[in-house]
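User: I'm curious whether this sequence folds into something compact or stays loose and floppy. Could you predict its structure so I can see for myself?
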Amino acid sequence: MSTAKSRRDFFRSASLLGIAGGAVAASSVSRVALAALPEPVIQTKPDTAPPLIPNTGVPYNPVVTLNGWTLPWRMNQGVKEFHLVAEPVVREMCEGFKAHLWGYNGQSPGPTIEVVEGDRVRIFVTNKLPEHTSVHWHGQRLPNGMDGVAGLTQPSIQPGKTFLYEFVARRPGTFMYHPHADEMVQMAMGMMGFWVTHPKTKHPLIDDVQRDFCFLLNSYDIDPGSYTPKIMTMLDQNIWSWNSRVFPGIDSLNVRLNDRVRIRIGNLTMTNHPIHLHGHEFTVTGTDGGPVPKSARWPEVTTDVAVGQMRQIDFLADEEGDWAFHCHKSHHTMNAMGHNVPTMIGVDHKGMAAKISKLIPDYMVMGERGMADMGEMSMPLPDNTAPMMTGEGPFGSVEMGGMFSVLKVRKDQKASDYKDPGWFKHPEGTVAYEVAAPAASIQAPKQVMDKPPAIEVQIRKPNGSQGHMNH
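Assistant: Here's the prediction. I'll summarize afterward.
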């Protein structure tokens, strides 16, 4: 199906299904159980879905998954049951750019799973991939046979088979799920998802918030014009994404002025990411190890999220405006970035460009004044790729891509409203502006780099005397 079934349809169909009693730990499910699987809910739209308000089980304050959604469940004799389907998916990373990935339930990343501390959780996993898989519940306390490491704690899930995982969500926190079978390939193809366990009662280290967002950091190596990631790339990925979306395809985080906001971030790339928020200070209040003691917290504007880590940050959104929120590695805020590209700043192209234009009429000089001209030129792009530096703001090109979004804080945003309020209307006199300067103090930039000064090199001869060489 092309879009998520409604919760009403889901629970109506789920109520007609029974479920076999005994859970089989990480083994092939019996025919009786197969006939009673919860119906899988599939989603293919890349929009940020509204929070899924629980109407069964223990209530909680739900999260909002950036450019994602939360997986519905059914209650079966006190057990919360989910159905994940591992399968090839097509993910729109931004307008005009789609990737052929592997994921869960129609998307990469898969849907967020939300439970409450103390819930008994039963997850059916059906494998529709061309190879075996497993699911590791990253950071969870659970029986060893449910940990999801193929070959070590369970047999792998072969294509066409369905396995069952069952355990109690023993501690609140921010977690992930991902394969632990052919892990390098499957995670490079986009197989991962978010997991949130909410506290059952008021927790001394977990504050109440009005907005709770989550997303995963992931990356790919996809050549312009192609669709499938290169799975053997270790560090030179050219697509840096949040929940398999790149700016300007990443939705903004829309909040009300003076909301307490929580953002949960998980990293399943091959490198660390210093995540930076403009206009506000936050504290790291949790990791995949659990809540951080208050004595160990301090104010920050950037927190480094290393490989395999989760970070939960809390802050008070008390400054109105459109605030940048991004990875502070500058090449991670670019799309389809090429490697081994020479630096052309200061190189005079005039003579060469004229000669090349005779052979290639549409030839365009790139990088002579820096990379900003990449966002200004209307260069033809290969099919199925994203411009390197893109995104339009109220004052022109934002010149960003990849791991970048905007925190939009508005005093008139309603409590339950997550819609984009549009661009911020700045109060008069609060926008930086140009001022006149004496003409004599302004010099035109040089287009050609100055010749470097001569360098004297002293060479010590074997007999101890010194010679001189000028360069």
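Summary: The chain has a mean pLDDT of 85. The chain has five helices and 25 strands.
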